[in-house]
Amino acid sequence: MNIQLVPCENDKALCKSFKKLYYKSFPFIERAPYFMLRSAAKKGRADMLAAMDGDEFAGLLYMLTDGDIAYIFYLAVDEEKRGKGYGKAIISAMKERYFGKRIFLARERIEKNAENIEQRKKRRQFYLKNGFSDYDCFIREGFVVYAFMGIGGKVSAEEYDRLITRWIGKFITRLFHLEIIENNTGEYDEDL
């Protein structure tokens, strides 16, 4: 396995694979409109990447960057390739591509009543095994509050706001209420 991260916003075939996996992997409430993802990538405000193993599409990675921060906005492995080390390989390629940056992500919180609680626990363990740490804050994006994890140092609320505003603009950023919320409870994944 040799994962290469290939920009795909101008490649129709790769965009088709990216879009199909994007819609299969993320619930409606967590998805930004696809046209916005592609448009931002075409304007250089995001990296829309196909994870390729040779000529085979293995997954997707959508990154927002600003200065020395890089936000994993979306990451998914093709359904047929899950459980075979592709996720780890994509993370490894991503770390190489964004070397020297503070990399962070928002993931589903581990909530007692979540239908997919085991999947959420496994996802957290996956990121911990790949060098990420839990941060003592949450990220609110629209109506969803996520757990916050990262590598290389914390990201401030101001840095996050600047990154998101660069990606989507001030109006939409304020409309959807995107922010970092400090966690003063001492429990990283409990309901707010």
- Taking the alpha carbons of the first and last residues, their distance comes to 41 Å
The CATH H-level superfamily of the domain at 3-131 is Gcn5-related N-acetyltransferase (GNAT)
- Reading side by side through the largest sheet, how are the strands ordered? 1-2-3-4-5-7-6-8
- Per CATH, which architecture of the domain at 3-131? 3-Layer(aba) Sandwich
* Assembly state (oligomeric): single chain
Written overview of the protein:
- The chain is 34% helix and 32% strand.
- With 192 residues, the protein is an alpha+beta fold.
- It has a domain at 3-131: Aminopeptidase (3-Layer(aba) Sandwich).
- Strands 1-2-3-4-5-7-6-8 form an 8-stranded mixed beta sheet, with helices on both faces.
- A hairpin with a 2-residue loop joins β2 (47-53) and β3.
- The protein is globular, with a radius of gyration of 16 Å.
- The mean pLDDT is 88.
